[in-house]
Amino acid sequence: METVLVLVLESLLLATIPACASELFGARMLRVVPESHDQLDHLHFMLVNSPFDFWREPREVGMPVDIMVTLSELPELIHTLTSQGLTAEEIIKDVGQMVVERSLAVYARGPRAMDWEDFHDYTTITKWLTSLSKDYPNLCTLEEVGKSYEGRPMKLFMVGKGGADNPGIFIDGGSHGREWIAPATVTYMINKLVTNSTEYDDLLSQVNFYFMPVINPDGYDFTFINPNNRFWRKTRSDYRPKVPEESEEPEELEENPVCIGVDANRNWGHHWMEGGASNNSCRFTYAGPEPFSEVENRVVRDQILRLRSKLKMYLSFHSYGQQFMYPWGYTHVYPDDWKELDDIARKAVSALTAVYGTNYTIGTTNNIFRRALAGGSHDWVKSVANVKLSYTVELGNSGNLFCPNSSDIIPSGEETFQALLVLADHVKETYAH
């Protein structure tokens, strides 16, 4: 039966969205390791200015960089790398086949009841949140706070039993569509808190948790439509450049699917476009035409501003990289309270590592990536919304990159939940009365 499903999915890949379908099969994932600052600078330039899809972005000399490349793009990429003395190692030989093998159940079965044995689309997640709010009315509330570009309802889910004035933690995930493990991990932690509320009664009586598991619902669901779109990163707003009507080929750019959308985590309005982003809508790191151009980011922004007098911590979950980062991203200068941010992060990571031995790098975003990465959410949340403790967490990859196995979900949830408990306990002990 599984062989039949694989063949069906391969046929689907080849039959739908031709511009993408022919590219995934045979696409490679290459790993390069910069050995000099000149090589690192060149990779930084490629990240912002080239059409190549960086799965692991350049950080520092000696650290691996992962690039997904289609067969048609492969000669150009190899030439570009070798011209700088960079040698590429093939990590994945056929990305399309990997999608079929690792996402077989998701694309074959369609929607089903919420669980953590596999990944779920946005509709399934929101229906599950609705059911929790009905089943646990004294613990949970669910509020529609806006709609996405394509009209999907955006929901804010609150867990807490001590009153609206309790200190709060705002938690989001799914800023980049393809990062399935992030919403899966966030929903796992929601489920753990809600269905085991008696065990965490003291915590839930003194701290409120505000969850938005998928803050880019259009981009996320686009990756569920069919396997061709599995690695979509951006939102789905239309910024395709227009060509003159008199052009002989006016549809060339207007129909280019990669020119749709914005990198949502480069679109926040704090030192926007001051490093690590592109102003070209056809690039994966496109920061948008202006700060907060994306309605999804505006919805999240408005909720954080509405709650900011109560919020003491912000957590944004991404993948992959095993990094626990705090501001700033736009500059190498550390925030005045960086030692406190660092100490808290180290305690959380220590609890996480104790579960399965997963190691995380801890530091400012700029320090970890050795360059400016501006327009990120945790910079804006700390500086503008004045939420003191602000973090971005790049979850562990278990070697499975942006296409994890369903068996990665529970381990990721288990270890990350232990970190959350440490963070929440700090908020309780420091701010609860």
UniProtKB/TrEMBL annotation:
* Cofactor section: Zn(2+)
Q: What is the lineage of its organism?
A: Eukaryota, Metazoa, Ecdysozoa, Arthropoda, Crustacea
Name of the protein described by the UniProt record: Peptidase M14 domain-containing protein
Keywords assigned by UniProt, alphabetized: Carboxypeptidase, Disulfide bond, Hydrolase, Metal-binding, Metalloprotease, Protease, Signal, Zinc
Instruction: Give the GO biological process terms.
Output: proteolysis
Q: Which residues form the Peptidase M14 domain?
A: 118-427
Write the signal peptide boundaries: 1-21
Q: Which family does it belong to?
A: Belongs to the peptidase M14 family.
Q: Which Gene3D superfamilies match?
A: Metallocarboxypeptidase-like, Zn peptidases
This protein's GO CC annotations: extracellular space
